Amino acid sequence: MSLPTRHFDALIIGAGGAGLNAALQLASAELRVAVVSKVFPTRSHTVAAQGGVNAALANVLPDSWHWHMFDTVKGSDYLGDQDAIEFMCREAIPTVYELEHAGVPFSRLDNGKIYQRAFGGQSQNFGGDQAARTCAAADRTGHAILHTLYQQNIRARTHFFDEFFAVDLVRDADGICCGALVLEIETGEPLLIEAKATLLATGGCGQVFRTTSNAHINTGDGAAMALRAGIPLMDMEFFQFHPTGIAGKGMLITEGVRGEGGYLVNKDGERFMERYAPRAKDLASRDVVSRAIVTEVKEGRGCGENGDYVMLKLDHLGEAVISKRLPGIRESSKIFAGADPVIEPIPVFPTAHYAMGGIPTDRFGRVAMPAGHGSEEVVVGLYAAGECACASVHGANRLGGNSLLDILVFGRLAGKDIIEFVRDNPYRRNADSASLDQVMSRLSRWDRKGDGMSVHQMRAELRKCMEDHAGVFRTEEIMAEGYEKLCELRDRLPEVRLTDHSKVFNTARIEALELDNMMDVGMSIAVSALHRQESRGAHSRPDYPERDDQAWLKHSLYYQEGDRMDYKPVRTKPLTVESFPPKERVY
Amino acid sequence: MNVPSHDEQEQLRRLRWQCRRGMLELDHLLSRFLELGYRDLSEADRLLFARLLGEQDQDLHNWLVSRSAIPPTPYLELAERIPAVAGEHSPGN
Ligand SMILES: Cc1cc2nc3c(=O)[nH]c(=O)nc-3n(C[C@H](O)[C@H](O)[C@H](O)COP(=O)(O)OP(=O)(O)OC[C@H]3O[C@@H](n4cnc5c(N)ncnc54)[C@H](O)[C@@H]3O)c2cc1C
Does B8 map to a domain? Predict the structure, then answer.
């Protein structure tokens, strides 16, 4: 079968901040670069990042990249690789200035310098006073960054394939990655894009959980593509939950609400955080509050018909305070929770927010995997950057404002490395027919007709199972049961059927392909979590409540084949400074 | 109710994908509106809705969710209608 085929020097899958920053380096160096995105590029999830991006500019309070590095290592609960973290924190400063020059309208101080706000986890002097490190363009930082990068790419003649869905990576006869098979959503026709280097920049996977702050597009496609290509995923058990998402919907209600005096109550009207965190109460750290909410629900003190959420009360603050200090919250709550917080509480439940783990890469965005005997090998021609990758700068827990930084720094670096790679490897590679057959059979599987469970139903069961068994509350018993349920769902996946087999804009078909990806990525999270017998960062286990550096100061690697786990050491040696040895993490 | 024609179905599927956005709030509002309110729109308003989907996420968020900005005049009515139809208090809920 002959497939329509296009050739490029580089193929970038994903048009968020990571993909676009990589593409820009390549296009500016006159390489032929293709960017594939399942939605129009400026509708990528980066647009939702309203908070800002971290860099130690020291515009508001004293600061240094070294303090930023310390905070990031500590925040990661010592699981982050210190060479990559040093690199990122140093690069943060030129990265923000580069964005400024490119036209991102950062908010300013009276003296004209970039304004910086204080976020949790930021300190001066290695754990001292609060620092102010986050640069924002009002409440539209992600939008401004994405837009600026998109415009620059258009000028640099990056070739965009908008509304094309990447199905799987393809390989040549030597087994080397040489591009991907993609589907044009409008026509439903497959297209083979062959490239000398391929970068996965497909973003997060929050949709694998029932309640998430992530947009519908975040289905972990790139991570699943890597898994199916035999590449392991790293540290997938570390998933950040935000305690206050709108129940059953997932939209974030910012921590600012509790900062202003809002508090949580159970069905008896009890202010239950007093029992879990007598001092910090509702302002305890995200994982503590999230676990308390889930415990209340599990022990039958949840609110509502199904007792499956708690309430966030702020009516006592009064309309003036709510309207002035918490703009947007009132509207959002009215629309999505059907509750006006001026008169009634908001139903909330922890919401899956950010994947710390992902496709393992080195500092240059090159996908790297163990090659036996403790050594590592780069997967030739394959790169990953952004939330789908794990460089690993966030370790077990990400700090606010460090994700935009991660995608920009490592997106750019991957772009630069690809330029060199293509220079050294200028020849064209062609996809092998066996590799193509494999991808095509994954596609045609969804053409099968007949009775079967619907995509919608399977998707709902998967997401519920992930929430119940691989969410905030993780004991051996709960997770082992979850793994069994997931195996059962995975076994039933081949029986799922589509009813709509049309070609043009068949979004049901795209959702079916996304379901495959969600199943693969969900499994990687569940299995990695089940195996890690300690509490570290976002992974907290009541049955193993302590961090165990002796046994577990190591990265997890999940392989799809046989749901196998492997581990590799954390890189504790920075590039130029002394290591930060593990310490207890107290704030 | 009329069964949508082949072309109408195709257009609906196309719009359904346009309702996939970078923000969860917009995903919810726009796709629910498409499901619950679109068929009641006049021909002219349907075109307007399709045009609205071409706008930037950040603007849509400001117009429909946080209401921190007033949309351009042609969208005014639609911007009221979408959260009213697709929000939680809507009869479709
Ligand atoms: C509500 C919210 C607020 C946040 N706020 C902040 C903040 O203030 N500061 C901060 O640092 N971080 C924040 N984050 C995290 C941050 O926004 C993300 O981690 C980051 O934007 C991810 O960028 P990315 O480039 O990796 O991917 P994305 O921006 O998610 O882009 C992924 C791209 O991949 C494409 N894609 C995916 N799958 C396929 C496929 N199969 N085929 C083709 N294309 C595909 C998509 O179309 C898209 O273009 C926030 C996250 C959320 C959910």
Answer: no
Interchain proximity A42–B27, CB inside 8 Å: no
Structure tokens, B32: 């629910």
Residue B49 lies in a domain: yes
Interface residue A505 vs chain B (CB under 8 A): yes
Q: In terms of Cα–Cα distance, which of A582, A531, A526 is closest to A556?
A: A531
Domain membership of residue A339 as a residue range: 244-350
Q: Reduced to 3 states, what is the DSSP secondary structure of residue B12?
A: helix
Using one digit for the tens of pLDDT, what is the confidence trace for A438-463?
A: 999 999 999 999 899 999 999 999 99
Q: How far is CA A93 from CA A100, A116, A142, A256, A466, in A?
A: 11, 13, 17, 27, 38
Cα R_g (chain A), whole angstroms: 23
**Residue B2's pLDDT is what?**
61
Within an 8 Å CB–CB cutoff, is residue A47 touching chain B? yes
Within 8 A of A506 by CB-CB distance, chain B residues are 13
3-state helix, strand, coil in chain B (%, to 5): 65, 0, 35
Q: Ligand 1 centre and the CA of A102: distance in Å?
A: 20
How many domains would you assign to chain B?
A: 1
Domain-embedded: residue A234: no
Inter-chain CB proximity B24 and A212 less than 8 Å: yes
* Final residue before a domain boundary, out of A542, A561, A579: A542
User: What does pTM read for this prediction?
Assistant: 0.96
Q: How far is the CA of A44 from the centre of ligand 1 (A)?
A: 6
Q: Compute, in angstroms, the gap from residue A22 CA to the centroid of ligand 1.
A: 14
Contact call for B27 and A332, based on CB within 8 A: no
Is 50 exceeded by the pLDDT of residue B91?
A: no
B36 lies in some domain: yes
Last residue of a domain, one of A350, A366, A393: A350
Q: Is residue A453 part of a domain?
A: yes
Residue B58 is part of which domain span? 29-93
What is residue A191's predicted lDDT score, i.e. its pLDDT?
A: 98
What is the position in ligand 1's atom list of the atom closest to the CA of A165?
Answer: 42
Q: Is there a catalytic annotation at residue A286?
A: yes
Residue type, A255: E
Q: What is the pLDDT of residues A285-324, one digit of tens each?
A: 787 899 899 999 999 999 999 999 999 999 999 999 888 8
Report yes or no: A253 and A329 within 8 Å, Cβ to Cβ.
Answer: yes
CATH number of the domain encompassing residue A451: 1.20.58.100
CATH of the domain at A344: 3.90.700.10
Flag whether pLDDT at A1 surpasses 60: no
**Into how many domains does chain A fold?**
2
Which of A286, A398, A412, A509 is an active site residue? Answer: A286
Average pLDDT over residues A506-514: 95
Distance from CA of A185 to the nearest CA of B (A): 9
Q: Does a structural domain hold residue B67?
A: yes
Q: pLDDT: is B6 or B80 the higher one? A: B80
Whether the pLDDT of residue A82 is over 70: the answer is: yes
Per-residue pLDDT tens digits for A198-238: 999 999 999 999 999 999 999 999 999 999 999 999 999 99
Structure tokens at A281: 């109460």
